[in-house]
Amino acid sequence: GTSCILDDDVCYFDDCDYLIYIADRSGNMKYPVFSEKPYAMIIHDIIQRYVPESVPTGNEFKNMIVESYRRADHLFALSIPAMNDCIQYSNINKEKLSVLPLMYDYVTVRQDTSYETGKLYKLQQKKYFVWSSNISPHKNHITALIALANYYDHGGTMDCVITGFGTKNLNPKYARESSFPGNEHVNKVHYIFNKYPSLSKHLKFMGNMKKDEYLDVLHNAAFFFHPGYADNGNMGFFDAACLGVPTLSNKYPAMEYCAKFTNIPTSFMNGFEEKDIEEALFRMEKEYDKWADKLPSSDELKKVSIGETWRIIYRELAKYIGI
Asked: How far apart are CA 39 and CA 18, in angstroms?
């Protein structure tokens, strides 16, 4: 069958002894990888197993992924749940897989910002929470937005700041002004916004922010909100912990693994039930400071950041590719 040969515009990587693909899929890849050199792949998640609408339709995508796995010399999963999904989804032998530590950056907030970004958007410190998202269906927008509307309609007081790549297009007003054509999922989101007026009052769309500005806003939030599922966990919860901000998260295997790996106490909810999300938001509104008090120290968080775990990653790579 047809295969994909990656070109570095020099010699098709022929001067390399070994290739490591840092992702197992790309929007530009339509066929399995072909390489005369041995290669390994890093597997972040098997999101298509749970949210098939998040990837191209049909069996071609699955066949491309599975065949690329089978041709690989070795596969490195970034969590035990991702490894298990890979085995079950693609029928890969367990001996061909190993797990690398999660790769978190330890972050700090600039001391000279004085909350300038929050003031610009008229945000009151600790009177809002941050939802870092994108426009993919696995972010669970529909269920979460209905829950948020119920939270506000029943007296919830904290605003929700939505940030992340493409998220301004979730706002019907912005999408109309920018002539964003939308897609089936985004159109459903717009329908929810139009149905529940309280959302427009309390949700602040800040788009894809600069890192310093984002950390400034996150640092002054009451908590980090993650209702998504099926991915390899939300890295933003580690950023939040570094800044002393707790997380309210959907409970699914990858996020439970992240919380255990980092020893970050996390308030979990059933993100597939609107009522449970609403109740969890009310609890977090009252208890976010108690959760913040439970967070690990900066020294403890640094121990599980890439500044320390790179040594484990190096040893694991060396074991299989001979560096």
From this structure: 6
Token duo for residue 181 = 């054509």
Asked whether the predicted pLDDT for residue 221 surpasses 70, the reply is: yes
Q: Are strands 39-43 and 74-77 parallel, antiparallel or unpaired?
A: parallel
Report how far residue 13's alpha carbon sits from residue 116's, in angstroms, rounded to the nearest whole number.
Answer: 46
* Nearest by Cα to 167 from 184, 150, 181, 186: 186
CA atoms within 13 A on the CB side of 206: 28
- Dist. CA 92–CA 110, nearest whole Å: 45
Q: Which helix (H) or strand (E) holds 224?
A: strand 223-226
Q: What is the pLDDT of residues 199-216, one digit of tens each?
A: 999 999 999 999 999 999
Q: What is the CA radius of gyration of the chain?
A: 21
Distance CA 89, CA 73 (A): 18
Centroid of chain to Cα 285: 23
Percentage of the chain beyond pLDDT 90 is 69
The residues pairing with 157 across neighbouring beta strands, listed in sequence order, are: none
Neighbours of 41 (CB within 10 A): 23
